[in-house]
Design goal:
12 strands; 4-stranded parallel sheet; Rossmann fold; alpha/beta
């Protein structure tokens, strides 16, 4: 393993730079030449390679985003495009490729190293590092960026709660989570929200509106005045658009409480959007990125391929799917194809973990109203 390339792909996540830094330092210490690929698969097709040395990554640990950049590349689904990418990697004499990213990024890595497509060409070993603030990848307890994103949501909601309490307001706060409501579920618990809306629940629009209205009315009947503010966390993956949701909720509240003060029946909306993605990574995400990169690089150096470095998988793994990393007692090396299968099951609500997440939150919803 003489030359290893590192790329970040898909949505950026705080902690990606920590992974780039660790991969560079550990790989070079082992005698490998480390290069970066700018702008993900798009940059690979444009031959955008840059050398990575100790000085290049010296100050990036505390920075959010990714110094290598990222971009979408839909045409990578085409076989001839992947053939061109393999030709570039071969010309650059790349022996191993580390892909830091989410579901689509790791799928691209699998296709790039597909034996049926590579044929007699230069062999390529691949390793994945999970990075997704949505925490929507299978067979890893956490992905890079999740902890920072949750801290950002909690800080924002704490500030919103101050003004909500002062005016007895109802706030609907939308957070990221297109296909996975993990951030909405966990941040709702962390901020003491009154309700969480997430796509895994699969509730129709009418039920969502009724659930919010019932929650608001229940909170308004509390004896303690300071406890009458309402905070509702909504994942962006919940199909009902937030503006339309606000209109429907306000109208239903006016129907059920026609004598109420305007402030009691008019909701406020805050969309955190890409604020959740940004910011300096938390200490945990810096450590997580560094540890996963350490495991991924050492796996490639040992000749292991088609694996993803994983942080404490939430399910028991058979030997053929995953093994505990000898480089870190909390990290595993899991089969990349199994990761992609489990990710699809997770996003479709078919996996035991997805069912547990939704069921566990259903069980504590009543407790949030106490």
């Amino acid at each position: 393993m003489k030359r290893i390339a590192v790329m970040t792909s898909g949505g950026d996540a705080p902690g990606m730079n920590a992974a780039i830094r660790a991969a560079t330092l550990i790989g070079r210490a082992a005698g490998a030449d480390i290069v970066g690929i700018e702008r993900g698969y798009r940059g690979l097709l444009e031959d955008a390679f840059v050398p990575l040395g100790a000085q290049d990554v010296a100050g990036i640990l505390r920075e959010g985003g990714t110094i290598l950049g990222s971009a979408r590349c839909k045409e990578f689904h085409q076989r001839d495009v992947r053939d061109r990418a393999r030709e570039i990697l071969a010309r650059r004499e790349i022996d191993g490729l580390i892909v830091i990213g989410g579901n689509g990024s790791l799928t691209g890595a699998m296709r790039l190293a597909d034996a049926s497509e590579v044929g007699s060409g230069r062999p390529l070993k691949i390793a994945g590092i999970p990075a997704s603030i949505d925490n929507d990848l299978g067979l890893t307890g956490l992905s890079i960026g999740v902890d920072t994103a949750m801290n950002t949501i909690v800080e924002a909601c704490d500030k919103i709660a101050d003004t909500a309490t002062a005016h007895d307001r109802t706030f609907i706060v939308e957070v990221m989570g297109r296909d996975c409501g993990y951030l909405a579920m966990t941040s709702a618990i962390a901020v003491g929200a009154d309700l969480a809306l997430f796509p895994e629940a699969g509730k129709p629009e009418s039920e969502i509106v009724d659930q919010i209205v019932d929650t608001v009315i229940a909170v308004r009947t509390r004896q303690q005045k300071r406890a009458r503010r309402v905070i509702i966390i909504k994942a962006e993956g919940v199909q009902m658009q937030i503006d339309r949701l606000k209109v429907a909720v306000d109208a239903r509240l006016r129907e059920r409480q026609p004598e109420a003060e305007p402030s009691a029946i008019e909701t406020r909306v805050t969309v955190l959007g890409h604020v959740v993605r940004g910011g300096r990574p938390s200490a945990f995400d810096r450590l997580l990125g560094s540890r996963l990169a350490n495991v991924a690089v050492r796996a490639l150096l040992a000749g292991v391929s088609h694996r993803m470095a994983s942080w404490m998988p939430p399910v028991e793994l058979p030997e053929e799917v995953g093994m505990r990393s000898p480089a870190d007692p909390y990290c595993w090396l899991v089969d990349l194809s199994a990761v992609l299968v489990e990710t699809e099951n997770l996003l479709k609500g078919r996996s035991p973990l997805a069912r547990w997440r939704a069921g566990a939150f259903d069980q504590i919803e009543d407790a949030l109203l106490l």
